[in-house]
Amino acid sequence: MKNAGHEATSANAGMSAAGLPQGAKAPSGGSAVREATSVGASIFRQDVQSMHAYAIQDSAGMVKLDAMENPHRLPPALQVALGQRLGALALNRYPDGRVNDLRHALAAYAGMPEGFDIMLGNGSDELISLLALACAVPPGAENGFRRAGVLAPVPGFVMYAMSAQLQGLGFHGVPLTADFELDEPAMLAAIAQHQPAITYLAYPNNPTANLWDDAVIEKIILAVGAQGGLVVMDEAYQPFSSKSYIDRLARHSHVLLMRTLSKFGLAGVRLGYMMGPQALIAEIDKVRPPYNISVLNCECALFALEHHEVFAAQALEIRAQRAMLLEALALLPGVRVYPSDANMILLRVPDAQKTFEGMRMRKVLVKNVSKMHPLLANCLRLTVGTADENRLMLAALRESL
Fold it and tell me: Could you write out the DSSP letters of every residue in 296-344?
């Protein structure tokens, strides 16, 4: 009987341990990296190569107040109950009709008008991308050889512009006023000039945290409708806002309302939803990837909605902490604080970079938005945290001004 080990040795005679002929050298990692860089330069879009990936700040060991997250975790009893529920899921199967249970639950929770429909996304980021994809109509005789476009006030959520660029749509940013209000004449002029396929209105806005004038919003919505475009009311921060557009949604046939469960308290779950007239949602839903909501995400969201009173109490506490912070920040010398209807506060300081670095050295992480747009010069954005986190943040801020 042949020795198995000898047979293997004979079969590999003349081969190195790496499976290469004797004497041959494996390519160096540096060589592969250089070749990949060369290949990438020729096959990737130039605009993609010029972009920067979305940066997430390192928050290890920090008081994390940079991403507008709900700072409260699930109570221990609910953690156990959710863990048992998730453990019983059939993870070996693709998501099934359970996602429709979630759609109905979200529609009921939000008070969706009759005759409207709802679609889900892997966070509202995916919904923004799907909208751009669905509306990326190429220039042609039907549209006067005009490239489809997206319009939004700036400064605003960066994904509006990024999704437009990635899908080949033009992006038209209209600056807010110096007090971060909508510039009504400029918005109406831009709508008439660019005839955007999509106009985003964040309600409230990120990073400025304010709600805009309802009369101006209605004029913008009517102007967009008159030239055949869509308006998306982005209510990501609705749990902390004093107003919602949901009770006005049914007035218009071209307005969509988008929300996320991230600020609700499920940022780690990644689930956004969008409501609108059935005919519009049906068209956008055609470009949604199959199974885009995992069974884990779906069940987590259903569980949270079943215990919505817990999250409502958390939102109430965050609002109370926001009121306390607004009062405390207004007393700091050299600091201008802007109104907030979200779980964040925008403030202008004498030197944003110095203050940001000082706070980071003191283990408090906030967002330096001063380079995002000229209107945000020397501005920092603070997330409203727990009472202890806010106390530490205020102390770090005072020492860093």
Answer: HHHHHHHHHHHTHHHHHHHHHHHHHHHHHHHHHHHTSTT-EE---SSSE
- Is residue 134 within 8 Å of 286, Cβ to Cβ? yes
What average pLDDT does this structure show over 116-136?
A: 96
Cis amide leading into 155 (omega within 30): yes
Contacts made by residues 286-290, CB under 8 angstroms, sequence distance 24+: 286/134, 287/130, 287/133, 287/134, 288/119, 288/121, 288/130
Can you list the domains of the chain with their CATH numbers?
A: 63-68+309-400 (3.90.1150.10), 76-306 (3.40.640.10)
pLDDT for 200-236, tens place per residue?
A: 999 999 999 999 999 999 999 999 999 999 999 999 9
Contact predicate 159/125, CB 8 Å? yes
Q: Burial of 178 by CB count in 10 Å (0-12 exposed, 13-18 middle, 19+ buried)? A: exposed
State the pLDDT confidence band at 24, using cuts at 50, 70 and 90. Answer: low
Strand, coil or helix: 126: helix
Segment 332-386, tens digit of pLDDT: 999 999 999 999 999 999 999 999 999 999 999 999 999 999 999 999 999 999 9
For residue 268, how many other CB atoms are within 10 A of its CB? Answer: 9
Nearest to 329 by CA among 240, 388, 263, 396: 396
Q: What is the DSSP letter of 278?
A: H
Instruction: Quote the pLDDT of residue 59.
Output: 78
Using DSSP, state whether 15 is helix, strand or coil.
strand
- For 75, how many CA atoms within 13 A lie in the half-sphere containing its CB? 10
- Helices 124-134 and 158-166: angle between axes, nearest 10 degrees: 40
Encode burial over 158-169: b for 16+ CB neighbours within 10 A, e otherwise: ebbbbbbbbbeb
Give the pLDDT confidence score for residue 316 in this predicted structure: 97
Distance CA 310, CA 109 (A): 14
Give the DSSP H or E segment for 154.
strand 149-154
